[in-house]
From TrEMBL:
SUPFAM superfamilies assigned: P-loop containing nucleoside triphosphate hydrolases
Family in the record: Belongs to the DEAD box helicase family.
Top-level taxon of origin: Eukaryota
Q motif, short sequence motif: residues: 105-133
Annotated Basic and acidic residues bias: 39-48, 500-540
EC class: hydrolase
Lineage: Eukaryota, Metazoa, Echinodermata, Eleutherozoa, Echinozoa
Name recorded for this polypeptide: RNA helicase
Protein EC: 3.6.4.13
Glycosyltransferase is among the record's keywords: no
Organism: Stichopus japonicus (Sea cucumber)
Amino acid sequence: MAIEVERNISSGGSASSYGGGRGGSAPRFGSRGASGPFNKRDKFDNLDKGSTLRKPRWDLDKLTPFDKNFYKEHPNVVNRSPAEIAEYCSAKEITQRGANFKPVFKFEEANLPEDVMGEIRKAGFTEPTPIQAQGWPIALSGNDMIGIARTGSGKTLSYILPAIVHINHQPFLESGDGPVCLVLAPTRELAQQVQQVAAQFGSSSRIKSTCVYGGAPRGPQLRDLGRGVEICIATPGRLIDFLESKKTNLRRCTYCVLDEADRMLDMGFEPQIRKIMDQIRPDRQVLMWSATWPKEVRSLASDYLRNPIQINIGNQDLSANHNILQIIDVCREEEKDKKLMKLLEEIMGEKENKTLIFTETKKKSDDLVRRLRRDGWPAMCIHGDKAQQERDWVLNEFRTGNAPILVATDVASRGLDVNDIMFVINYDYPHSSEDYVHRIGRTARSNKHGTAYTFFTAANAKQVPDLLKVLRESKQNVNPQLEAMSGYGGGYGRGRSRYRQRDDRFDSSRNRDSPRGRGGYDDRRSDSRSDFGSRDRFGSRDGNQGGHSSQNVASNGARGPSRFQSSSGQNGQMENNSPRPPVSQTNGMQNGGFHATQRPPQGQQQQQQQPPQSAPGGMRGPPPATFQRAPPKQPAAPVAGQNAPAPVGGLAGAPAQVNMANFDPAQATKVAMAQLQGQLDPASFAQYQGYYQQYYTQYYNQLQSQMKV
């Protein structure tokens, strides 16, 4: 027997010449997959993953041998002089350790099969990237390899094309066989993108692939695995579940890829990775890819790679893409919203304006999207708590340009492959400079250029030294205020002042009526603009954004969890090609007064912000819970001459020339409230009266501004 382990006969785990039968029992808990950024709970949950998997005792003499060296140097490569190679490697910043493989300068020199070359020509590629030029000879020769390269370097094709060649030289799959090639990825977004590449370039070779990740139904994924796939792209959590429940096996796996290994370790997946690697025969070929080379990644490589050849593209120190213009704006926390709005005004005036905005937390992402959509910006949100189908739909809207603004947490900072992102905005600076480099690496993909803006506050002062290294290495202009923070320990904050205590009035820890719980002054300031659903105007003590009851969500999307569940983006011929629009509190199509996705023209922006007429009193969406004690009999909204003296035209669309003497906010309020007499209880009547008074006062101020223009 190839493996000397106990087998459960009833489980169907029969012996095989490839070894590694199915073992273990079904997991007690469902998979968490890679559904979100790493946190402490994930770390301890990951320790229990795979606890029932037994490590096989491999006998190499009894394992079926397989071929993994298919590389033959092209005559052009053989005849190339050392001087030419040295010049090329110097220009492309390629360094190699452990061997001396010559890079290929053209696709034809890699001796790839003709069907693969046809797919390359169809994709319009002209020449290999540095990581491909140096990586293909190593991977095709059957060596274990470590690739250290920044994001956007083309590493996916660096291991997918050799995988296709490797699979074509192996025996066909039989019933019950697992995949020949396994790719482990940290996030479901990255796994889906790798699967798309595998499906595109493997279709002509009739190589089937599937994507296995958490947060999606297990059924379609199990169906694909049961039918047999040569390539499986998986997140560690879901794959561990399938291995424990004996739904698949890794007996046939001879080609393994660890993509973004540093990210997987950051997310706490090291125990799962080790348990998965123990299920694969020890003479497999392993390719490890990482953007950084910390000691944790080095330790993992030393345990599971045999005599690896390491290639580095660019400086081994932490460095950003030199094609990215990095702009650091040193500011205070409460200034971020104003600066962001001004920045978006400039960006959206550009022809290519696809923008990715990063925030620190999921809640902040949701809150920021609400504020952006309320102001008419076509923004959507993605983070780990979103249902998979909603995430697919949002990414599709972003890729197609229907929603050119995407707000995200770090779940999207790695592996998000959208070629035409022109701008990255760090609304919150990340916890480490490594994450900063990966975030801004979403722009300037495939040798293009991009711009990264970062709001940097005194709270980030400890990150200044590392950030300065990144900026200077990439030859960026350094903000003098940033250098000053480095010298004085972050002195751009408020400092000690006798007026400091005045800000404590807005600290939610001292204000029981704060709608946000923790967050204090900055959060209150950011949400205190003219939104007619805010708590400070209606006195709602609800904890939701804007003071609305959790059951009143007509303006912010559907109530409760999304009714759309995720679908699996399964093998090369995926059945669900067009994601369905979700019902979400942040990504709903009607949230914020615009439909679909494009920001309204400049002349129509104010009209878009007018509360819909269908809501009582012209409010934005349903009234707060305090208004529902005695619902009115649907009084007409205060628009064009209905509930107020002519020429009232609402908050927008008023005629250019108005006789200011004919309009009085107090009189307009009195006329509007006369129609509500007897329909509301006294408390609600007073609430509405305050609302109308504010409504017409704002309109009166706008008339004044129009007269000045």
